[in-house]
Design goal:
Helix 1 runs antiparallel to helix 5, helix 3 runs antiparallel to helix 4 and helix 8 packs antiparallel against helix 10. The chain has ten helices and no strands. The protein has one domain: Glycerol uptake facilitator protein. The protein is an all-alpha fold.
C-alpha cells in the first residue's frame, strides 16, 4: 500500500469511528443516545487506535496535518511530502464523514436541532471566545505532538520518518491512543478537542454539502480555530522538542 493511500484510509477510519461515536451519543433515536462524554472520548481514542493500526506500517500513520508538520520541523519527515499527506488526510476525512452520514441516514430528520447535527461532524466551543478557544486547541495539540515525538524518541535511535512505532503490531498503536484519550478527558471540554485540522475541516465541509436534516450554517466564523490552533501547537511542540536536544 502506498503511503498516501494509507493516510487516506487511516484518516477515513479515524473519522468514521470518531464522528460515528458522536452521532451515536447525540442523534435522536440512536441506541447510544445520551451516552455522555466518557463514551465520546473513549470512542475517539479507539478511532485513533484503528487508524494508526491500519496506516502505521505504510505511512507512519500521521492522520493529522499537525503531526505531519511537527515531524517535518524536527527533520524526520521530508517537506516535499507534507502537502500530499495533508491532501490525503483531508480526502479521508471527507469520505469518513460521508460514511457516518450514510450509517445514520434515518436519524438526521429525527434530530431537528441543527447545532446537534453539526456537532456530529465538527467541533464548537462550550463558551465562545476566540482567543481562549485558540489557546485551548494550541495546548491540546502541543500535548499530542510532544507526546508523539517522545514516543518516537523512546522507540527509535536514530529517529526515522515513522510517526508511531508499529513494529509490535497492535501494541504500537496504544501509546498515542492513550495520549488522545487523556487530552479528551482533561482538555476536551472547552472546544471539543479538534487537535487535528483535517478532523475538523474535512467533516465541516461534508456537513456544508450534505442534506443533513434541518441544517444550519457550518459556522465558518469559528472554523479557523481548529485549523490554526493545532498547527501552532505542533510548531511549538516541535521547536521545544528540538531545543531540548531530543531530535
Amino acid at each position: 500500500m502506498s503511503p498516501l493511500i494509507a493516510e487516506f484510509l487511516g484518516t477515513l477510519f479515524l473519522i468514521l469511528l470518531g464522528d460515528g461515536v458522536v452521532a451515536n451519543v447525540l442523534l435522536n433515536d440512536s441506541k447510544g443516545k445520551g451516552g455522555g462524554w466518557i463514551v465520546i472520548t473513549t470512542g475517539w481514542a479507539i478511532a485513533v487506535f484503528v487508524g494508526v493500526l491500519i496506516a502505521g506500517s505504510y505511512s507512519g500513520a500521521h492522520l493529522n496535518p499537525a503531526v505531519t508538520l511537527g515531524l517535518a520541523i524536527v527533520g524526520v519527515f521530508p517537506w516535499s511530502s507534507v502537502f500530499p499527506y495533508i491532501i490525503a488526510q483531508m480526502a479521508g476525512a471527507l469520505v469518513g464523514a460521508f460514511l457516518v452520514y450514510l450509517a445514520y441516514l434515518p436519524h438526521w430528520k429525527g434530530t431537528p436541532d441543527s447545532n446537534t447535527t453539526r456537532a456530529v461532524f465538527c467541533t464548537a466551543p462550550a463558551i465562545r471566545n476566540s482567543i481562549s478557544n485558540l489557546i485551548c486547541e494550541i495546548i491540546g495539540t502541543f500535548v499530542l505532538i510532544f507526546g508523539i515525538l517522545e514516543i518516537k524518541g523512546a522507540f527509535e535511535r536514530p529517529l526515522s520518518g515513522a510517526a508511531i512505532p508499529i513494529e509490535l503490531g497492535a501494541l504500537g498503536a496504544i501509546p498515542v491512543t492513550l495520549i488522545v484519550w487523556g487530552i479528551g478527558l482533561s482538555l476536551g471540554g472547552p472546544t471539543g478537542y479538534a487537535i487535528n485540522p483535517a478532523r475538523d475541516l474535512g467533516p465541516r465541509i461534508a456537513y456544508a454539502l450534505l442534506p443533513v436534516g434541518r441544517r444550519s450554517s457550518a459556522d465558518w466564523g469559528y472554523a479557523w480555530v481548529p485549523v490554526f490552533g493545532p498547527l501552532i501547537g505542533a510548531v511549538l511542540a516541535a521547536f521545544l522538542f528540538h531545543s531540548l536536544g531530543r531530535a
